[in-house]
């Protein structure tokens, strides 16, 4: 096998004094040339984490459902053999473009991208046409286990998952993200007071809500799950509901008019936090099957609620030991108190939460 090789058009470069190569690899070759460490090998003797198979189906679905509109980042791999690079002399671009030849008996170990590798294998089984697409691969020359382990650590050390808010802002495939953006744009209070990039708000921020909180609350309002479609009528209904909520939240209106500092509202009240929005989404889900003429007057009761953290009724519901809680039980119990103030009957499951709170 040493007499045969895989050959890729590649660009040659140098990183930390070591040669490296970037090539476009046909995806159908991925399972044939890239090795993944056996999960039975102890961690100290391999250069990767074990494969988390729960992550793979989402990537597979993404590839299969978007065959003409997906994006995959580069795989990083180490080669444990001598490679040859033959510069192209007729490009006029110097000696760093050419053909990279890798012996077929070389071991090519993935340092970063093992979940992409597994997803590509499964996606090609469902849609063989994907095998003719390419994925960029960054090749390094293997210098032993220690170096490969260090590469894995370095590649993942500074990786930061984007916030839910900015993911929602930029995701144009997800119907619920589209709903959140539309609500944030068309509900007056949200349009001026929403943090679109971060999922938490700093003390000095002039914003009152986060886009991620609006997304979760609107998802609950329309009782939608992951991948569910959202009609234009449903989207418009959500906008009408949140506008109706906002006009009955006097502090939100004061913030819009810049008569009160948003940082003071977030510090002293619970009505701009995610737990309250989520609770209102849950309440709204039980109201929207009625005509607006029936549920709109009910929401006027929001004006009579004491939203201050100093209101002891919020302890054990929206707050635990004075701190805002995002737990599922907190959402339900917060909604129960709001329902009581609005004169809305509790469901059987909501009454069970109340009994647990009393105990």
UniProtKB/TrEMBL annotation:
Cited InterPro entries: DGQHR-contain_dom, DNA_S_mod_DndB
Pfam families (alphabetical): DndB (PF14072)
Protein name per the record: DNA sulfur modification protein DndB
Annotated source species: Halomonas heilongjiangensis
Lineage: Bacteria, Pseudomonadati, Pseudomonadota, Gammaproteobacteria, Oceanospirillales
